[in-house]
Amino acid sequence: MTATTLAAEGAIPSAAGAPRRRRTRRRGRTVALLFVLPALLLLGALVVYPVLFSVGRSFFDASGTRFVGGGNYAEMFHDPATLKAIRNTTIWVVVAPALLTGLGLILAVLVEKVRWATAFKLLLFMPMAVSFLAAGIIFRLAYDEDPDKGVLDAAVVSVHDAFAGTSSYPTARGREGLLDQGRDGSYLSHAAASPGDTVTLPMVGVLPGDLPRDASPAGPAARRAAAAGELRGVVYLDFTPGGGGKQGRVDPRESGLPGMRVEALRDGRTVAATTSSADGSFRFTGLHEGSYTVKLPASNFAPPYQGISWLGPTLVTPAIIGAYLWIWTGFAMVLIGAGLSSLPRDALEAARMDGANEWQIFRRITVPLLAPVLTVVFVTLVINVMKVFDLVYIIAPGPVQEDATVLATQMWLVSFGGGNNQGLGSALGVLLLLLVIPAMVFNVRRFRRSQR
Q1: pTM
Q2: In this predicted model, what pLDDT tens digit does every residue of 160-213 receive, in sequence order?
Q3: pLDDT tens sequence across 320-373
Q4: How many CB atoms lie within 10 A of CB 227?
Q5: For residue 30, what are the domain limits?
Q6: 239 and 315 assigned to the same domain
Q7: Do residue 94 and residue 117 come from a single domain?
Q8: Rounded to the nearest 10 degrees, how much is the dihedral formed by the CA atoms of 54, 55, 60, 63?
Q9: Of 3, 110, 243, 404, which has the highest C-beta tally within 10 A?
């Protein structure tokens, strides 16, 4: 059978069919290009053009009219605010992804042993549905330094006061001219006293509404005579409601100050201590004959403990990282949990049968097998924290904004937040892009290798 006959019967392709196939392939490419074209246009308009424009703009001055070459890049590395932003970004990159990956791994392993695992995962993943703006507002309120507003400081103050206590009269002060003030903020009786004497310690600066509920009038206590060998006294509020009365004298309607610590000093040393009762009275017994000074220690007037300054210059960056952990821990846990569910169970069971405990299985089998997943999660979070902006801008108060700034917020502040230098801002944007690209390339290559 000849080649012509075979071609006619379809056994081999004819020369006339080749152009038809090429036209079909071209038509398929054209249709595919038409479908991809909108995505390419959006990619070009939203990604490629801004990148190219920012690179070009970074070589011009603030006005955009004078070419400065690498001047913006040189200025960037001499600006203290930019150097602080680079330092803070480094802290974010080192701390946040590592903590998130570790937390996600631990939670993913533990959740496998929880009966209501799905509900637990849902609760941890729910913060991902909250925008960074809303999360920033939530944590700005949670970190408020006022214990009446900030939930964290309210908890810290409650624990502190439960163990250390708090002063009852932070605003009180001694009546001027009648009590002497010590260097440490304490108050001392103006004249020396001896056993058998009664000492009055007049105080001011306490609002009647701030008096303890058990406070009672100090008049009867002031008129009570001291017994032999006993030093008595009364701490009272030298203020008569409605006016009247005489300074330095206990009037019938003046209230005692209960719960006030009182000390008896001799030769500068404390030899006895007690606490005033409901009517402000106190007494020392068993004192030797001699001259004593009665003292109200500064602890009576210490300002109330206000908690921790979460958003101060020292803790603002760790505080914002804490908010970031709250949002992204569920993401890391779910991804690592998905990898954990695909591990070969026979290897784990074999290790248990060989006598390995759970910690050995976790460290020598689970973690090595999960290494590819952990790497992907870590690198993804590194890319994400380099671009963090919302949380830093919203949570950090204005006075400490510079202490918390990262490259993304510094880029915005320099360009639009008052700096009005889009040349330097574009240089910062290019630096941020150059820092993100290696992590992105690493992630893409690892993903392709895993696909193979």
Answers
A1: 0.76
A2: 888 877 777 888 999 888 899 988 889 999 888 898 888 999 999 988 888 888
A3: 999 999 999 999 998 898 888 888 878 778 888 877 887 888 888 888 888 888
A4: 12
A5: 24-57
A6: no
A7: yes
A8: 0
A9: 404
